[in-house]
Backbone:
């Protein structure tokens, strides 16, 4: 019964969120703030993780390829496709669920337990629309940019590994990342990431919005937001991969 209660509350909350904002100016003001807080401030961790993952992946793929019949440029091919198909679209979102999701849940949860949301409701403000809609739309807009940055920085990390080590030549790596490239993989990765961005923001907002009690409950809401959004992302990853690549 607890599961169905949570699902019902979640969709009721979404029904309140996706309404026309009472004041467009206030919405756009919040939207710009969320673009910076959720999107721009996530760029550094996005770039750092992706550069090192690209470099490590290039090195490990080369070390694991013991078959001499495989051409050396296969390293670039595998690195490129792995980043596009899975890491930058799914694993990156799992990482951001920890950063963005916990931030959203703790922020809204703190507003709930300090009765700021109750005050908004008394004044006739649709608090769900005012607080949550800018977060969802801003993060969904920024997510494709984060994915593109992630793929690009990962390929640069692999390039540096080829440039400064002798595991393969730069020419072999560059040829590999351009060999048999399927342009469909780009919209595939972006589509998945946008869906995951919606999951992260909406699930985290739900747990923050319905937090009750004290500071301990805010911590529990943040934990639940990260865990539950990660589980939903992994479930959707199977479904979307089957749907879009079959």
Residues:
């Amino acid at each position: 019964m607890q599961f169905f209660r949570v699902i019902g509350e979640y969709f009721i909350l979404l029904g309140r969120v996706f309404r026309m904002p009472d004041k467009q100016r206030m919405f756009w003001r919040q939207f710009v703030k969320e673009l910076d807080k959720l999107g721009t401030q996530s760029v550094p961790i996005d770039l750092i993780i992706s550069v090192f993952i690209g470099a490590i992946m290039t090195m490990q793929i080369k070390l694991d390829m013991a078959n001499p019949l495989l051409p050396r440029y296969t390293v670039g091919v595998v690195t490129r496709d792995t980043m596009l198909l899975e890491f930058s679209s799914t694993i990156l979102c799992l990482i951001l669920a920890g950063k963005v999701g916990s931030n959203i849940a703790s922020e809204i949860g703190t507003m709930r337990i300090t009765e700021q949301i109750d005050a908004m409701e008394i004044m006739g403000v649709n608090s769900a629309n005012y607080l949550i809609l800018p977060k969802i739309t801003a993060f969904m807009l920024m997510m494709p940019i984060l994915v593109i940055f992630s793929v690009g920085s990962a390929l640069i990390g692999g390039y540096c590994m080829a440039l400064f080590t002798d595991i393969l030549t730069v020419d072999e790596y560059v040829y590999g990342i351009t060999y048999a490239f399927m342009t469909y993989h780009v919209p595939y990765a972006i589509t998945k990431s946008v869906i995951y961005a919606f999951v992260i923001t909406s699930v985290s907002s739900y747990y923050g919005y319905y937090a009750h009690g004290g500071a301990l409950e805010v911590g529990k809401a943040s934990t639940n937001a990260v865990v539950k959004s990660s589980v939903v992302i992994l479930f959707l990853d199977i479904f979307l991969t089957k749907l879009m690549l079959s």
